[in-house]
C-alpha cells in the first residue's frame, strides 16, 4: 500500500521550497538500504531505473522493466516509514498512450507501495502526466539528460549548453508544471539554466549534476556511497567508500576461514608485543615455517583509521599481520617536531587488536640504531624535491628505517598509504633498486567526511585550525576538476589550487606541484598525474595529494562505461 501520513508527505516538499529548505533525495533498491537511508533523514527515496546499471549490470537503464521496478519498490516500501517513495516509470511504460501510462503507474502505487511516480521527458510527456494527475497519482517530472532517451540524445551528455536547448528546457519545465507535476528533476544541465528554471517554477526542482541553485539534490546512492565499481560522474561527491569496506570485510572473512580463525573466538585476541629485533625475526620465521604469509604495516604510532585501513587491507591479504610502532628519530628534520610527536602505546595496541593484528613490533631507538651505526639508505631523484626540498634528510631516514623493518620482519607484503605519496615512491624505488623480496601495496587515502586526510598531525590543530583545514583538499579538488575539464598546463592547474587556498588566509603554502608517477614536476599534463601540496596551519604542517586523469584519458577510459551521467 502507498504510504500516507507516517512521515513526509508530498505537499510538504512544496513547503520546503517556500521556506528555502533543501530537499534530500537518494536512490534505494532494497528494504535494508531504504531503512538506513530513512533513519538518516533522507526526504525522498527514488526507486530509480538506475538499478538496471548498479544492480543488474546493464550499460543503460533502457532494459529495466515495470516488473523489476515493482519488485524493488515493494522492498523499499517495507524498509522506509518516513521518506516519500517515488518509483521510476521505465522505458515504454508511459510513452505508448496515456491510458497505458495510467495502468502502469497504478500498479506502482497499488502493488509497489510508491507514493508517486517519476516520468522522463518534457512536452511529449505532458499527456501522460495530465492523465496520471487527473487520476490522483502524484508525478515527478524529469528533464535534461534523460537516460531512457540516451540514444536520441547521442549519448550520456550534458543538455542545455546552447541557447536553443536552454529555451527548450524552460518550455519543458513550464509544461510539466502546468500539467500538474509536483516536482521536477533537472539532470546534467548548466547551473545558470537550472537556476533560471528553479526561479521560474512554483514547484521544487531537484538537481543532479545541475549546480547548487536547485531546491534539492539527488544522487544514485551507489555512487555517493562508493558501491558502484563502474564510472562515477564527476559531479558526484563520495561520502563513503563502502565498496572498499565490503571488499576488505570479505577478504577478512576469507582469511579467517582459511586460517581456521572462524568460527572461533568472537573477539580478536590481543596482539603479541615484541620489543627486540631477534624476537621479531623469530616470530615471523615461525609463521613462515607454518606456511603463513606475512604482512607488515609500518607506523610511527598515534594510530587512526587511516592506519586501520592499512591493517584491514593487510588482514584480508596475509595470514600473519605485524604492525610496527616506532617513532623514527632519523626522519625528523627538526628536534622540536620529534619531541612533540607523542604516542599512547596502550591505545595503539588496543586499536591493533580491534583490527586483528597478530603482533606489534615496538622497539626502542637504541634497539633499532646500535651505538656507532652510520649506514643509511638514500633514494636520489624521487626524494630530492617537494617534501625533500623542505625537510633535508627526511627521506634518508624514512628509507633507512623501512629497509631495516623489511629486513627484520621479512614480510611478503608491506602496506603504505597514498597520502604520503612521495614517501611511497621513495620506498617503491628502494625496494626495486635493492631487490627486496616484498610487494609494496599502496592503500588509498582515508578522509574525514569534510575531506581532510586522516593524519596523526591533525590532533595538533586548534579548533579553528581544524575548521579551516579541509580547504587543502577542496583546493586540490579544484585543480583536479581543471584537469578533468581538459586543462593540460600545470601552471594553470596550480593557479586554480592557489585561488581556492586563498579563501583561507591563515594557510601558508609551502609547495603545490603537479607531478608524474616518479614525483617529478611536469609542465604539460599528458598522462596520469598527482597534484601534491604541503601547507602550514599555525605550527602544523599538512600534506595531501590527489590522483588525476587528463580529460582525453578519462574519456577513453569511459568508452565502455556509458554510465557517465545518470539518475
Topology:
Blueprint: H1 10-19, E1 23-27, H2 31-39, E2 44-47, H3 51-54, H4 66-79, E3 84-88, H5 98-110, E4 116-118, H6 126-134, E5 139-144, H7 150-153, H8 163-179, E6 183-187, H9 191-200, E7 205-208, E8 216-219, H10 221-224, H11 242-259, E9 272-274, H12 277-289, E10 294-299, H13 305-317, E11 320-325, H14 335-340, H15 345-354, E12 359-361, H16 365-368, H17 387-390, H18 394-409, E13 413-417, H19 421-433, E14 439-443, H20 463-468, H21 471-484, H22 490-501, E15 507-515, E16 529-537, E17 540-548, H23 551-557
Parallel strand pairs: 1-2, 1-8, 2-3, 3-4, 4-5, 5-6, 6-7, 7-8, 9-12, 10-11, 10-13, 11-12, 13-14
Antiparallel strand pairs: 15-16, 16-17
Helix pairs in contact: 2-4, 5-6, 8-9, 11-13, 18-19, 21-22
Q: Would you mind describing this structure in some detail?
A:
The protein is an alpha/beta fold. The protein folds into three domains: 10-235, TIM Barrel (Alpha-Beta Barrel); 243-442, 3-Layer(aba) Sandwich (Rossmann fold), CATH 3.40.50.620; 461-556, Pantoate--beta-alanine Ligase, Chain: A,domain 2. The chain is built from 23 helices and 17 strands. The strands form three sheets. The chain has an eight-stranded parallel β-barrel with strand order 1-2-3-4-5-6-7-8, surrounded by seven helices. The protein has a six-stranded parallel β-sheet with strand order 9-12-11-10-13-14, sandwiched between helices. A three-stranded antiparallel β-sheet has the order 15-16-17, with helices on one face. The longest helix has 18 residues, at 242-259. It starts with 9 loop residues before the first helix and ends in a 10-residue tail after the last helix.
